[in-house]
Amino acid sequence: MGRKLAVIGAGLMGSGIAQVSAQAGWDVVLRDVTDAALTRGTDGIKASYDRFVAKGTLDAADAEAALGRITATTELEAVADADVIVEAVFENLDVKHEIFRSLDKVAKDGAVLASNTSAIPITKIAAVTARPRPSSAPTSSPRSR
Questions:
Q1: Nearest Cα to Cα of residue 29 among 83, 104, 79
Q2: pLDDT at position 87
Q3: Can you tell me the distance from the alpha carbon of 19 to that of 68, in angstroms, rounded to the nearest whole number?
Q4: Could you tell me the end-to-end alpha-carbon distance of the chain, in angstroms, rounded to an integer?
Q5: What is the per-residue DSSP string for the chain?
Q6: How far apart, in Å, are the Cα atoms of 49 and each of 30, 73, 101?
Q7: Average pLDDT of the chain to the nearest whole number
Q8: What is the C-alpha to C-alpha distance for residues 10 and 5, in angstroms, rounded to an integer?
Q9: 42-101 pLDDT, tens per residue?
Q10: Of the four listed, 12, 101, 112, 114, which is most buried by Cβ atoms within 10 Å?
Q11: What DSSP assignment string belongs to 15-43?
């Protein structure tokens, strides 16, 4: 498997997924619908890395390198070459369906489409795609630790 992850949604969960993935060495595309949402998400990631550096749990060079692996965008097409795409938007089935229909068209063959849903059965979300297996990616926010 490759090392490119895309996250759809730059809120608390989405930006947290992007943060830990970039820190683990993945190239990350963080996508949201507005520049303001992306700025909030990336500012939160930087603030979190800054706290880890201040505590001595993360080297400043590693934090800077991780930030450099995150690309923020409003363009859905930017996720097309990701190996794994995690949807992390609010819990609304219609919104998730719209995203997964779009992802099904732009994601490369073999890409894993996953959801960070906590309330909606993954099979209901995946039903709108032609992908063979649904996947759920439950996580906790690294900024809450």
A1: 79
A2: 97
A3: 11
A4: 29
A5: --SEEEEE--SHHHHHHHHHHHHTT-EEEEE-SSHHHHHHHHHHHHHHHHHHHHHTSS-HHHHHHHHHTEEEES-GGGGTT-SEEEE---S-HHHHHHHHHHHHHHSPTTPEEEE--SSS-HHHHHTTS--S--EE-----GGG-
A6: 16, 20, 34
A7: 91
A8: 13
A9: 999 999 999 999 999 999 999 999 999 999 999 999 999 999 999 999 999 999 999 999
A10: 114
A11: HHHHHHHHHTT-EEEEE-SSHHHHHHHHH
Is the overall model pTM greater than 0.85, yes or no?
yes
Amino acid at 88: A
81, 91 in Cβ contact below 8 A? no
- Residue 63 · residue 52 · CB < 8 Å: yes
C-alpha of 61 from chain center: 23
Q: Give me the residue label for tokens 């489409």.
A: 113
Percentage of residues of the chain with pLDDT beyond 70: 89
